[in-house]
Amino acid sequence: MAENKHYPELRKRLTPGWWTANRHYAMYMVREWTSLFVALYSLIFIYGLSLWATGSRADFLNFLKNPAVIGFSLVALVFTMYHAATWFYLLGAVAPVKIGRSKTKPWQALILNLILLVIVSYLAIWLVVLR
Amino acid sequence: MKMETHKVAKLHAILWGIFSLGGMIAAFLLPVMIYMTAIAYPFGLWPFSRENPACPSCLTLVRDPSLLVTGHLLGALFVFVTIAGSLFHGIFRFQSALTEVGLLKYRRALEAVGYFIIFVGIIVLAYYLIAWYLNGTIT
Amino acid sequence: MSQEIATIRVTRYRPEKDSQPFFQEYKVPYRHDMVVLDALNYIKAELDGSLTYRWSCRMGVCGSCGANIDGEPKLTCASFLHEFKDRTITVEPMSHFPVIKDLVVDMEDFMEKLVKIKPWIIRKKDSLVEEGEYRQSSKELDRYQQFSSCINCMLCYAACPIYGLNEKFLGPAATALAYRYIEDSRDQGKDIRFPIVHEIEGVWECTLVGECSVVCPKGVDPMLAIQRTKILGATNAIKSILMPRGGR
User: Fold this and answer.
1) pLDDT, tens digit (0-9, with 9 covering 90-100), for A65-110
2) Shortest CA distance to C87 belongs to which of C34, C46, C41, C43?
3) Which DSSP symbol is given to C129?
4) Which of residues 38-97 of A touch C (CB under 8 A)?
5) Where are the domains of chain B?
6) pTM here?
7) Within-domain flag for A14
8) C-alpha A101: how far from its chain's center?
9) Sign of CA dihedral C123, C128, C129, C131
10) Which domain holds residue A43?
11) What is the spatial distance between Cα C152 and Cα C74, in angstroms, rounded to a whole number?
């Protein structure tokens, strides 16, 4: 395209707060920020283990009983569950399972995976604690 | 040091693969992990038992989260997979989320810091677990 | 009987006169079966001939009349006035694109991306016409058919914040179309197309906001195409490390 005159380009740039524009974007941003809690919990757990490695087992256990650690972990659990639910839903949207002729809907995948989560959680407890 | 573009892209593809696997791990294994360490143990709920001051002899079968690590090798593996996977997933996703709220121009720095945290975290975790396994703490 | 009125607020930007865009309000006689494009056409014909916008087919086929209507990317020809409260409607140019005039945006970037992914069937060796057509079963057609419905209206780009933040991102429609050929059983161009979509600024930029699939007027699911393309990229990369000599 040949242009003989050049005008300053007009383009609306996204501001850091773009995700407040609608509900979808806001939910998306919450979903992405769950990762902060997932990462921090992991780091805090590793720190707890380091207390044990450099001190004693009791240091590790006392650390787990620290109200601040419990409080943060509970918040982290809420966000992790939100991560899990959105992850399961998107899993259903991206990789639907074929049952007969019809494909699973995302919300069906969400429910199926939540049931699977309960089973996996029980198996994990059985494997590492009860056995 | 400059890598060819297609090699950078391939590395990115693999990192994305690990991120997805980590997302799976964080979704399926992290909730139960947090439940055990932050609810069941401090509040004395199943599967952990509460210490009973009235009956010291009952303490013979006290279970606590140290079992997660030292119970047996599978437990240690569970801890490693859950924590390492969640850490990778969380950091990878969070630095990308930061680029979306105005920090895009610092992307390279964010990535460097992010991968450094992931690397150190996983090495430290693996070091403890391997050391405990080698000295017999993990049976 | 008094004539009912709809109020249309339209972005005006005339680069030769204005340094900044502004809103201009027009009162348009309202009919129940009117779409936003009808209102724009009324304004141009009866009120202000200088209003500039793209349109052609007025039936959701050509994909040229996209705009942000009350903030959401939509085809103006497919948005009925009666769907909006108080019949007051704000029409802005699609987000993330440079504006040329009023509602007209510069499509150059998208056009370049469209060509870049080579939206045609690539054969290692073209067969002669006498040998007949490349046959395909209905099952094979099902694998890509929805992605071939794209009308290049660019609404998905206007909805994609990742494209808004970084215009190097290949984006939804171009990837969906690339995936349409990747999944086509007649196509043999994976080795050519994969390096394009799996570039750093290709599919990896996408973080699954999912808004592209919400706004698509033709029911295409670009989010799905991008995710599947990522999965293909990751499995190929892992395979090539495990089996450096083995093919994909």
Assistant:
1) 999 999 999 999 999 999 999 999 999 999 888 777 788 899 999 9
2) C34
3) G
4) 90, 93-94
5) 5-48+60-134
6) 0.92
7) no
8) 32
9) negative
10) 24-130
11) 13
Interface of B with C in 71-100 (CB under 8 A): 96-97, 99-100
Distance of alpha carbon C198 from the chain centroid: 20
Q: Which CATH architecture has domain C108-242?
A: Orthogonal Bundle (1.10)
Q: Of C170, C240, C222, A91, which Cα lies nearest the Cα of B14? A: C240
Do the strands C66-69 and A98-99 form a parallel or antiparallel pair, or are they unpaired?
A: unpaired
Whether A32 and C207 lie within 8 Å, measured CB to CB: yes
Superfamily of domain C5-105: Beta-grasp domain (3.10.20.30)
What is the per-residue pLDDT across C67-96, written as a single tens digit (0 to 9) for each? 999 999 999 999 999 998 888 999 999 999
Task: Quote the number of domains for chain A.
Answer: 1
Scored b (16 or more CB within 10 A) or e, B64-76 reads: bbbbbbbbeeebb
The answer to whether residue A64 is domain-embedded is: yes
ipTM (interface predicted TM): 0.91
Q: CA-to-CA distance for A16 and B103, rounded, in angstroms?
A: 8
In the A/C pair of chains, how many CB contacts fall below 8 A? Answer: 49
Rounded Cα–Cα distance for residues C38 and C34 (Å):
6
**Chain A: closest CA distance from residue B94 (Å):** 6
Alpha-carbon gap, residue C185 to C167, rounded angstroms = 31
Asked whether residue A5 is assigned to any structural domain, the reply reads: no
Q: Which residue of C has its CA nearest to A86?
A: C208
Residue A34: give its domain's CATH number: 1.20.1300.10
Other residues' Cβ atoms within 10 Å of the Cβ of residue C147 = 25
Q: Does residue A10 fall inside a structural domain?
A: no
Domain boundaries, chain C: 5-105, 108-242
Give the architecture-level CATH label for domain B5-48+60-134. Up-down Bundle (1.20)
CB contact C15 to B (< 8 Å): no
CB spacing of C211 vs A24 below 8 angstroms: yes
For every residue of C7-69, DSSP letters joined together read EEEEEE--TTT-SS-EEEEEEEE--TT-BHHHHHHHIIIII-TT-----S-SSSSS---EEEE
